[in-house]
Fold:
Amino acid sequence: MNNSALVVVDMLYDFIDGSLACQNADKAVQETIRFIDRQTKGQGGEDHEILDTFPILFIRDHHPADHSSFKEQGGIWPPHCVAGTRGGDIHEDLVPYAKEEMTFDKGCDRNVEQYSGFEGVNCAEQSLGEVLELLDCTDVFVAGIATEYCVRNTCEDLLKAGFNVHLLKDCIAYVDYDGHLKALQEMAQEGISIE
Ligand code: VGL
Ligand code: ZN
Structure:
């Protein structure tokens, strides 16, 4: 039997309307909600047991204020997703789906750039990969921001760990359109299913 889950990568305000606002971000958020509704609602639109039957895991870029990836520290990015600021918060339309123990933070160590969310950790110090294993997942759907960075690195780590990876192409946002297309093409060649 196939067990599916959804991983939502970095749908955080700094990547949507903040310091690192990405193209297609608003649409990606709304399409992600539509995808969730399709998985979790019956034909009549009635709510099923959303979170128990279809796990939704959230990744958060979650940096200290002096993270090494920031320009002032010699990195390449403007400051973004600083822990405790609005820029690091999950979009409000997705908050109803985000359980604390299903929320995984990455980039918390000032010295480490961590694009992949695979080793992000929840409030119980469990990693995303560990929780997907505990849930007996075989198939992981991925939505999020940004295609070329966190989405790609997370998808590749999931694939390496043996999951079937389904990247939802309407549910992702990007820094650069050409970079996005190139990343999609390369991921498809690697065995990630673009849907
Ligand atoms: C990301 C830039 C900087 C990402 C994180 O999650 O895609 N991009 N930090
Ligand atoms: Zn970051």
